[in-house]
Task: inverse folding
């Protein structure tokens, strides 16, 4: 059977699968981050075992870590022979074996899928209700809450969120969410309506030829994310199976923070072979309005919304501009191939001002941009070919880009992936998140290679490399430049309950040697990252994770700087009391913010948090989970102690002292 290597890669539990597949995706974030809304469906799926008779592509690829070929064979088997009656039946499917069936039995199950029926009469009988209430607060007083501060915060330091969800079988779902950031007003001027942010959706599904109708908030993802961001895998630094992105199509969502979700309506009509999607939405952006040379009004902003409305200045820039997005997507699916076409237009109410810096010469400006693309996927035996090509028209400028990849099963013990992309400097995709070394899908030519190997009964090896070229200037790079990344990761199963991960990642980029002027020489800057990770389970009630991260930077100025992070995690559970504890103690030392190190942190349910460690100090957190009947309670305390400073942060978030502490609590009702 050709699945021997996949059985070794298969996750031991749902949390391990999520962390392993998603942590790499956010290594290059700029600050502390919470990515819960992007992962909401996957995180919710991890709450219970996954039904193999009705598993979505997102969950199959990300949590179960099935290959395209395995997922295709699973669907083909169910279509031909009917639904599985035992999880061990999958050992008879081409691409699976008994070992993989054994491992999947820990995170998946087999149960009948209920389709159709009298869903109206069972509307409430088959329904699920959840209500989530969350509180977070930094306990030290920040400068923005000082009554004498200039441009002080208008509200209290609590961050409050709620979310109510209702689902009736597979035909109807709705949700309402609200959020107030720390520092924002709450039920008083200027937020008389209570929460600063509200989100909602009503979603009807699988009613005749109507596959889905969404009214309210939703996300879109087609193809490889060239125009509209597909999600889940598709990360740099991952293995061969992680290079391809899996489209979410239309996904109803009620995010608990201001994000890039769309608000409007979307309808999907079709069957298993042909489907069409029409969508319309609008989105607000904060920023400021300025006069142009002809007396008109222009918008100056980043076209990304932080969602903060805490001060008079932030409130004055709230909803300064709005755009309308409308378009459609057509998809044709067969057993071995998928073909999709997307067309869309984005219009801004107020024209976006051109960038003032030379490197921004080809960035989006004006009132609108039109886009079109075609994407495909084809399975040729155990080879997967996929890609997307698109164009854009902005202010008379025509840009284009494409991404083309392939995943090849060389033999049962090795897998190879190649991914080529080219986005010219005129290509504009405001919502694109395709595979790239750049922060946006333009001004880039690159080739990425990855390979997975089974090098022993207990050892796997993952290799990756990426070479890329930017034909125009970039931020702090005053000439066309190039870069190169490479990495290796070994996973060694020392025993059934002891797994060792060794990882090395190297990145070389070109940067300005100084910042005095534009016309200057650029030099190479190298980045080395090392990681040693040991996962162990000394008892059924105790899981331990020990990790050491080390980073070396050699900058364009010739300096040598480093950072190190060590932490110990403990996860303890007492099932008879429905009680669990999760804790971490970390020690870190970095020469500067540029050497910051990131690590995933256990957090409240339905959140995915990666924290940046920089400076010198220690950090710890303790989280207590208690579940009974229809209620889950969680309390989390975290604190960072810095021994290299008397003041933490700056501006309105400045804290006098050595410590920064956060208290978080959540209660989840589910009926």
Result:
């Amino acid at each position: 059977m050709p699945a021997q290597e996949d059985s070794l890669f298969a996750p031991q539990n749902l949390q391990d699968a999520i962390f392993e597949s998603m942590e790499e995706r956010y290594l290059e974030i700029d600050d502390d981050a919470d990515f819960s809304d992007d992962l909401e469906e996957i995180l919710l799926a991890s709450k219970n075992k996954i039904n193999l008779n009705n598993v979505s592509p997102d969950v199959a690829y990300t949590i179960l870590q099935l290959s395209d070929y395995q997922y295709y064979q699973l669907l083909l088997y169910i279509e031909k022979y009917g639904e599985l009656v035992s999880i061990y039946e999958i050992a008879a499917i081409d691409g699976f074996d008994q070992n993989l069936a054994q491992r999947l039995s820990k995170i998946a199950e087999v149960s009948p899928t209920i389709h159709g029926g009298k869903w109206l009469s069972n509307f409430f009988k088959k329904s699920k209700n959840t209500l989530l209430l969350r509180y977070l607060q930094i306990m030290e007083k920040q400068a923005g809450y000082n009554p004498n501060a200039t441009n002080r915060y208008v509200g209290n330091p609590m961050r409050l969120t709620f979310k109510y969800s209702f689902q009736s079988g597979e035909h109807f779902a709705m949700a309402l969410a609200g959020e107030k950031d720390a520092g924002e007003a709450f039920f008083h001027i200027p937020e008389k309506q209570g929460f600063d942010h509200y989100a909602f959706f009503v979603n009807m599904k699988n009613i005749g030829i109507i596959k889905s109708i969404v009214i309210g908030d939703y996300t879109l993802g087609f193809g490889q994310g060239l125009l509209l961001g597909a999600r889940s895998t598709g990360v740099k630094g991952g293995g061969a199976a992680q290079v391809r992105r899996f489209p979410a199509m239309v996904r109803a969502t009620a995010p608990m923070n201001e994000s890039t979700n769309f608000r409007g309506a979307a309808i999907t009509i079709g069957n298993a072979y042909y489907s069409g999607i029409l969508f319309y939405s609008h989105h607000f952006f904060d920023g400021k309005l300025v006069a142009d040379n002809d007396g008109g009004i222009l918008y100056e902003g980043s076209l990304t919304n932080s969602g903060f409305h805490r001060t008079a200045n932030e409130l004055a820039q709230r909803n300064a501009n709005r755009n309308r997005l409308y378009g459609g997507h057509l998809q044709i699916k067969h057993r071995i191939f998928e073909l999709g076409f997307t067309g869309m237009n984005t219009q801004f109410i107020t024209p976006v001002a051109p960038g003032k810096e030379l490197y921004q010469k080809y960035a989006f400006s004006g009132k609108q941009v039109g886009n079109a693309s075609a994407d495909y996927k084809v399975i040729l035996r155990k080879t997967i070919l996929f890609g997307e090509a698109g164009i854009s028209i902005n202010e008379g400028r025509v840009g284009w880009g494409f991404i083309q990849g392939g995943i090849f099963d060389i033999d049962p013990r090795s897998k190879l992936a190649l991914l080529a992309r080219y986005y010219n400097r005129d290509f504009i995709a405001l919502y694109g998140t395709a595979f790239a070394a750049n922060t946006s899908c333009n001004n880039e030519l690159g080739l990425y290679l990855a390979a997975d190997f089974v090098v022993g009964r207990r050892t796997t090896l993952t290799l990756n490399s990426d070479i890329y070229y930017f034909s125009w200037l970039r931020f702090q790079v005053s000439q066309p430049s190039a870069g190169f990344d490479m990495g290796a990761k070994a996973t060694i199963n020392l025993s059934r309950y002891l797994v060792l991960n060794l990882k090395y990642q190297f990145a070389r980029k070109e940067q300005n040697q100084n910042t005095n002027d534009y016309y200057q020489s650029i030099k190479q800057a190298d980045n080395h990252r090392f990681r040693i990770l040991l996962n162990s389970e000394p008892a059924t009630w105790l899981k331990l994770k020990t990790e050491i991260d080390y980073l070396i930077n050699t900058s364009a100025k010739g300096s040598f700087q480093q950072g190190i992070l060590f932490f110990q995690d403990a996860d303890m559970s007492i099932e008879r009391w429905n009680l669990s504890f999760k804790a971490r103690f970390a020690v870190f030392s970095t020469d500067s913010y540029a050497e910051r190190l990131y690590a995933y942190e256990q957090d409240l349910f339905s959140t995915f948090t990666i924290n940046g460690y920089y400076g010198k100090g220690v950090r710890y957190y303790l989280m207590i989970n208690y579940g009974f009947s229809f209620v889950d309670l969680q309390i989390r305390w975290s604190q960072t102690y810095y021994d290299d400073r008397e003041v933490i942060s700056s501006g309105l978030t400045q804290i006098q002292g050595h410590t920064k502490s956060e208290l978080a609590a959540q209660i989840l009702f589910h009926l």
Observations:
- Confidence is low (pLDDT under 50) at residues 1-14, 28-34.
- The two ends are 43 Å apart (CA to CA).
- The longest helix spans residues 68-81.
